[in-house]
Design goal:
The protein is 4% helix and 37% strand. It is built from two helices and 28 strands. The strands form six sheets. Strands 1, 2, 3, 6, 7, 8, 9, 10, 11, 12 and 13 form an eleven-stranded antiparallel beta sheet that branches. A six-stranded mixed beta barrel has the order 14-18-15-17-16-19. A three-stranded antiparallel beta sheet has the order 24-25-26, with no helix packed on it. The protein is globular and about 60 Å long.
């Protein structure tokens, strides 16, 4: 299901001349600018790219395969894709629209674009990454809510050796228009029942640059909009199996089948396949209903309906699966609950008692919703769901959750919600 190797030979493509992607019209036509900055490329977090003399180029050994975003490659063609996550930028006010400009050499059949995300006021987490698209004033990322802190991520695609060479990036944040309401305080994370497959690929490299280990703990989703930077839990999921076991894990890879299918989003903002209902992966529609002639975005015949890939440790140890299965997934960053990072791969227990039976695993670095706290000091327990508890030391930074009125026990049901 996965296209992993980006090191295969590609036909050489001639470079075009110097190109500024996202060039804006004359200043007189521009709206007000809240802030404008040029990130230092040398301080970015690379995944599948390398810095060479201050410029960014693809590194074929670490890139993952995906279609060109905007280019001359035919539909279905896959080329290496690399990421450079830039440092966040604090703004003097709120924005919901960022114009991006990339300066470099971009050959035919390749591309260089910028994703942008914003810090969410309600949770302290991040919005999803929003790819900049052609709009008024250049390449524009329209953020889903106003924010005063933004971050950019360079995405380059093309054959190694003849792909893009990026020399600079400029971002210009425009004042929030008021067209978006502030996010409400009460919004549960969306959750859907999807088919899960085991990723495997030990020794390979994920889309965010993580080298896969034996019994690893992460997931892959078929869109980079919810892809965490390496070793972070900016985007995490809760996966529950029919046997009642659940796992909390970060999103560190892109797949299965597709790379632009953020199916958990409403059709109005979904990057591709907008005629499908929210929560329905394109691969599932192709496999079960013959959608897109039964093929994925690479024109491969879809052989199963997978909407999530699970690393081996999640698949075998956390969920105790012995075959691919239908699971329920909570896409935790889509809600308005505050999420806190777990330190260490730790068992999730059925009650606030070290002798309680384990009901799953919270992976190291995963983000979990701490609903309330029981006890104090060494006897502190954190409830992260009904019938789901972590020892207090597992999550150092929990904010200020309320105390639990009582311990709530129960077994997760097949919808991913808990009874009891």
């Amino acid at each position: 299901m996965r296209l992993r190797s980006a090191a295969a030979p590609f036909a050489s493509l001639a470079l075009v001349g110097a190109l500024a992607v996202g060039v804006t019209p004359p200043a007189a036509a521009q709206p007000a600018v809240l802030a404008i900055w040029t990130p230092d490329l040398t301080t970015g977090e690379p995944a599948g790219v390398r810095l060479d003399g201050g410029s960014v180029r693809l590194d074929g050994a670490g890139a993952y395969l995906a279609p060109v975003e905007e280019g001359s490659a035919p539909r279905g063609a896959a080329v290496p894709t690399g990421l450079l996550t830039l440092r966040p930028q604090q703004l003097p006010g709120a924005t919901d629209r960022v114009v991006t400009t990339v300066v470099g050499d971009v050959p035919a059949g390749s591309d260089a674009v910028v994703d942008v995300r914003g810090r969410r006021a309600a949770t302290g987490g991040w919005t999803e990454w929003i790819p900049a698209e052609p709009g008024a004033g250049g390449m524009v990322a329209e953020l889903p809510e106003p924010t005063s802190e933004v971050q950019g991520r360079l995405v380059i695609t093309g054959p190694p050796g003849s792909g893009p060479t990026v020399r600079g990036i400029t971002l210009a944040a425009q004042p929030a228009t008021g067209r978006l309401a502030q996010a409400g305080a009460e919004q549960a994370a969306v959750h859907y029942r999807v088919f899960a497959t085991r990723e495997g690929l030990v020794g390979g490299t994920t889309a965010n640059g993580h080298v896969i280990t034996e019994r690893d703990h992460f997931v892959a989703l078929p869109s980079r909009r919810g892809l965490s930077t390496r070793d972070t839990s900016d985007y995490s999921v809760k996966v529950c199996a029919p046997n009642g076991r659940c796992a909390f894990a970060p999103v560190w890879d892109v797949g299965p089948w597709n790379t632009r299918d953020d199916y958990w989003n409403p059709p109005s903002v979904r990057q591709e396949w907008r005629d499908l209902p929210q929560g329905l992966p394109q691969s599932q529609a192709a496999y079960k209903n013959g959608y897109n002639d039964g093929k994925d975005q690479f024109d491969r015949t879809v052989l199963n309906p997978a909407g999530i890939d699970l690393a081996d440790g999640l698949f075998w140890d956390a969920l105790e699966l012995d075959d691919n299965a239908w699971v329920t997934v909570d896409y935790l960053w889509t809600g308005n609950e505050r999420l806190s990072a777990v330190v260490g791969d730790l068992p999730v227990l059925a009650a606030p008692d070290p002798a309680a039976p384990p009901v799953g695993i919270a992976a190291n670095g995963a983000a979990v919703p701490v609903q309330c706290v029981l006890g104090q000091g060494a006897d502190r327990w954190l409830r992260i769901g009904a019938g789901q508890y972590l020892a207090g030391a597992a999550v150092p930074d929990i904010g200020a959750p309320p105390g639990c009125a009582t311990a709530v026990t129960g077994t997760p049901d097949t919808t991913g919600r808990t009874a009891g």
